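Whiteboard transcription, Tuesday session. T.W. wrote the structure tokens on the left side:
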């Protein structure tokens, strides 16, 4: 198996954006404000990178383990219900990933392959 379940490892929050979603800088600014308001003590860092030629991913890190990463994702979903900076479709393309698995994802460039693993490994 390419991806390994390691819930205690440091995790990264990832938001996958398609080519039609253009304002990455604006989105990063909104996420940084969200982090400042709700996770200031966590000292999260944010950034973005191209996964493929038509896929940009936004990264928020570090989370000490899967549980804290999932807590962040849940809080972001709650916040989104009363905000307009993220759509439900954009949030549907968000997930957490361990550092080890992120290295594999970055090497393999197959987001759908990882998401199949993610749905199985993180559905608790």
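and on the right, the sequence the group agreed on:
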């Amino acid at each position: 198996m390419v991806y390994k379940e390691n819930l205690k490892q440091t995790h990264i929050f990832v938001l996958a954006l398609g080519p039609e979603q253009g304002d990455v800088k604006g989105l990063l600014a909104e996420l940084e404000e969200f982090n400042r308001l709700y996770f200031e003590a966590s000292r999260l860092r944010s950034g973005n990178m191209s996964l493929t030629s038509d896929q940009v991913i936004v990264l928020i890190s570090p989370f000490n383990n899967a549980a804290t990463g999932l807590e962040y994702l849940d809080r972001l979903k709650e916040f989104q219900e009363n905000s307009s900076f993220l759509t439900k479709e954009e949030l549907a393309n968000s997930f957490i990933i361990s550092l080890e698995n992120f290295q594999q994802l970055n090497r393999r460039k197959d987001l759908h392959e990882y998401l199949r693993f993610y749905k199985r490994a993180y559905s608790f």
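Someone added at the bottom: The longest strand covers residues 55-63.
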